[in-house]
Amino acid sequence: MKKNLIISLKLTVVMIILCAVLYPLLIAGIGKATPGGGKGKTVLVNGKVVGYELVGQKFTDDKYFWGRPSAVDYNAAGSAGSNKGLSNPDYLQVVQDRIDTFLVHNPGVKKEDIPADLVTASGSGLDPDISPASAYIQVKRIAIIRNIPEDKIRTLVEQHIEKTILGPSVVNVLKLNIALDNLK
Fold first, then answer.
1. Could you give the CA distance from residue 9 to residue 142 in angstroms, rounded to a whole number?
2. Do the beta carbons of residue 128 and residue 56 sit within 8 Å?
């Protein structure tokens, strides 16, 4: 019995060193070697950090493109999905509320034309991108509010479409909104 206890204690100490010391140091070292030094890819405007390239931001003003909804209210301290399925009435109500809000702010858009990524949160709750369709459907609202021709804003969207290697094309909402503010 004493022999087994000593072996168990030794194994516990070894695992604590491996899992609580060496592994975190390895991950921190890898993070330091990445762009941004493990602190994320910051987006600068006039030398000031305005956000992070890979973390969704909350845009609710009608003069900006809206991003994907967040299950964690864009709190990057802890990412999470809603974990609610299509059979959950609470989830369906949240999606319906998002649809209703979008329709109020985008008159003339039909419910069936709203892309799913504008009314459903991503798995992380912090997705910084929307589909090109989600950007294009907002062009009219922004053009009216900013008094800018629709074709000029549509061209801006086209310039911000990022092709991905394995997935569909996306538009980074923060970068697009910064470019929109710089549009003359």
1. 64
2. yes
